[in-house]
Amino acid sequence: GAGVSQSPSNKVTEKGKDVELRCDPISGHTALYWYRQSLGQGLEFLIYFQGNSAPDKSGLPSDRFSAERTGGSVSTLTIQRTQQEDSAVYLCASSYRQGSNQPQHFGDGTRLSIL
Amino acid sequence: AQTVTQSQPEMSVQEAETVTLSCTYDTSESDYYLFWYKQPPSRQMILVIRQEAYKQQNATENRFSVNFQKAAKSFSLKISDSQLGDAAMYFCAYRRYNNNDMRFGAGTRLTVKP
Questions:
Q1: Could you tell me which of A46, A106, A114, B83 has the fewest CB atoms within 10 Å of its CB?
Q2: CB pair distance less than 8 Å for A108 and B4
Q3: CA B27, CA A13: separation in Å to the nearest integer?
């Protein structure tokens, strides 16, 4: 399909390991968002990319979290030295352009479990 | 800071009946947008309906409608003629005008009984 694609769908890793989560947005969408959803909670904003502009990193919880977006398309979210509290579903969303009324299209998320 | 509160962790409704999900938010802004998203067990977030704060008319999308009370900072979702496929987590979200991040409530789990 032509929706937002995230991989892997599930990731289990040991505490202290680094993980990379991938997001492939809808073709033509210039805005890309990462969110974290802890069990039973709403979505927590992490980072936002718009075209070639500098990303809005204001939601990243610590310096162990980083993200990049290559060529204005695919994005990877990297978590270094993972901790158990990092266990959550990580959702990626894209939208056609920046705009408060533009709907965000979400991927199915990556469920990250830290042992 | 903007916060979104959904005071009903769980709701249930009989098939074909109507249910209303509550949402309140806190903001000092006058221009903003409000959204309801649905998250079925598949985890994918699906936009249900959105409302621009400058519009007085309540948004409607088929069986889904909102009751937007700007002065009260309330944004409830009404689902009419509930169907089994409506069962999901519903999240209310707020986004300030020309701002990047969206603030979500904690969600309401809706169960539809046949």
A1: B83
A2: no
A3: 39
